[in-house]
Amino acid sequence: MIIGVPKEIKNNESRVALTPSGVHEFVRRGHQVCIETMAGAGSSFTDDDYIKVGAKILPNADLVWESAEMIMKVKEPIEEEYAKCREGQLLFTYFHFASSEPLTYAMLRSKSVCIAYETVEQTNGSLPLLVPMSEVAGRMAIQEGARYLQKPVKGRGVLLGGVPGVAPGKVLILGGGIVGIQAAKMAAGLGAHVTIVDVDLPRLRHINDIMPHHVVTEFSSEYNIRKHVQTHDLIVGAILIPGAKAPKLVTKDMLKTMRPGSVIVDVAVDQGGCVETSKPTTHEHPAFIVDDVVHYCVANMPGAVPCTSTIALTNSTLPYALQLADKGWRKACIENEELKKGLNVVNGEVVYKGVSDAFELDYTDVEVVLREEALA
Fold it and tell me: What is the pLDDT of residue 374?
């Protein structure tokens, strides 16, 4: 199979979909890898690094898209890439379809095969291709939140860890999943007082067992969230419903009860955000203010630390990508239930329920599509 890796062109996105180590694995299995020149530069990988392991360097993105049977990316295609996708071409990347109607319709029109990193799901319900970037984003949420609490960037002027004689800052984390736990670790490490809310009691018990005493858990309800936003300095949105829009847990009217200069970091913005006033931002213009509350809503937070993120991502995606290349997407998805759940759009049909529900689109059972493809 010919695998193509174009350079990411989303605002300030410096990650790349494959490390030289990943390319080496494809090449030694007999596959060809075409990489756009300088695609890895943002992650400190040179064209020579890729050439040494057998990659073919192409001078522009158009040639990569035209040559490849499978495109591997980090972020979803943006508008100028829509026309490059072609019928039957396999796209393996983060899509987050439920947060973007234009992207969904563009991929349906292209009749490409879209496997979303974020919905590949293991039998225990974990999302192995989302985990590494969630770990990065959770830790970054506290770094960025701590920064935006500083007065020069319109924050309250609070040091999360406090100092002797001064109480530490207070962090409220909405969701006790991977993002929430990593955020709690970072905040607790700084010395902040942390509250995690979730509706999953077994998860809250687990968090209570593994976290230090200044991390407390509470059942998530509108009443409790409304109470806590009034007294916490930093709110981290860490909610995820695989393949679907995030619920709005912090409403616009709640902002009026928060202290001026409080900060919201909505990590869930990729899936529409769990704060009603959230909207996707970029690393170039990461924050905005509503009702004196600072909102940090960068949709590709791990892109700010590409050296770490690219390696972590390839570690997770490579085993699945090799199966797709070795077997073809149909056979790989039939034989691997985890990959099958990654299928979102196939040849103009929506095959993932969360996407069809988000935009009231016709839904086709993935089993039907795979059966039809096998007979074709």
Answer: 61
Below-70 pLDDT ranges, the chain:
373-376
Which is nearest to 7 in space by CA: 39, 50, 53, 48?
39
Phi, psi at residue 70, to the nearest 5°?
A: -125, 125
Predicted local confidence at residue 140, as pLDDT = 97
- The tally of CA atoms less than 13 A away on the side-chain side of residue 91 is 30
The CATH classification number of 2-119+306-375 equals 3.40.50.720
Which fold would CATH assign to domain 131-299? Rossmann fold (3.40.50)
209 is catalytic: no
**Edge to edge, what strands does the sheet with 90-93 contain?**
56-58, 32-36, 2-5, 70-72, 90-93, 113-116, 343-346, 349-350
Q: In what order do the strands lie in the sheet with 263-266?
A: 215-219, 193-198, 170-174, 234-237, 263-266, 293-296, 287-290
Angle, CA of 152, 133 and 328, to the nearest 5°: 150
CA distance 313 to 15: 9
- Rounded CA-CA distance 126/112 in Å is 26
Q: Which residue carries 């985890």 as its tokens?
A: 338
- Supply the DSSP string of 28-74, one letter for each residue: HTT-EEEEETTTTGGGT--HHHHHHTTPEEESSHHHHHHH-SEEE-S
Determine the Cα–Cα distance for residues 345 and 339; give it in Å rounded to an integer.
13
Which one is catalytic: 31, 233, 270, 295?
270
Q: How many angstroms separate the CA atoms of 155 and 32, rounded? A: 50
Q: Of 96, 193, 232, 295, which one is the catalytic site residue?
A: 96
* CATH 3.40.50.720 residue window(s) in the chain: 2-119+306-375, 131-299
The answer to whether residue 283 is catalytic is: no
